[in-house]
Each structure stands twice: as C-alpha cells, then as structure tokens.
Amino acid sequence: MKISIVIPAYNEEENLPEVAARIKEHLSGRFERELIFVDDGSQDNTQQVLRDMRAQDPDIHFVVLARNFGHQSALRAGIDYATGDCVI
C-alpha cells in the first residue's frame, strides 16, 4: 500500500526539513510513501528548500502554485498530484 501525504506550505522554509524527517521517522518501514509539499505562493525560500529536499530524497515531491490560493486550494492541488492508494 502506498500512502500519499499532502503538506501545504506558505513561507515555511525553516520547518520543511523537520516536518519531512518526522513524518518519515513515523512511517519508516511500514508503508511505501510519498510526501507532497504544496508551496502556496510562498515569498521566502520555500521553493528552493523543496528543490534541495527533492534532490536528496525521491519520496519527496512538490507542487508550486503561482500565488497564494489558500489552504484548501493547496490541499486540492496536492490531492490531485497524489498517486497513493490513500491520501493523508
């Protein structure tokens, strides 16, 4: 079973690595997984941090929205991108 975990992010550059590490720690060995971060029009370095994280971990994916559309729209974009059997 593959689990897709969708995480909306707006100006969260400092928190992203910690969030990914904690999620992976709790799901380690239990399920195939993908972490999908959705950059909801951040104005900091969120997009670059996501690119760096993706380069180091193939389980990390991201979607970049052109501007801030809000939490629900970011979740929807991540759900649409997800390929798992279950989306959290």
From TrEMBL:
The domain of life for this entry's organism is Bacteria
* Entries under Pfam families matching the protein: Glycos_transf_2 (PF00535)
Tell me the ranges covered by the Glycosyltransferase 2-like domain, including all copies: 4-88
Q: Which Gene3D superfamilies match?
A: Spore Coat Polysaccharide Biosynthesis Protein SpsA, Chain A
This protein's name: Glycosyltransferase
Species this protein is from:
Hymenobacter jeongseonensis
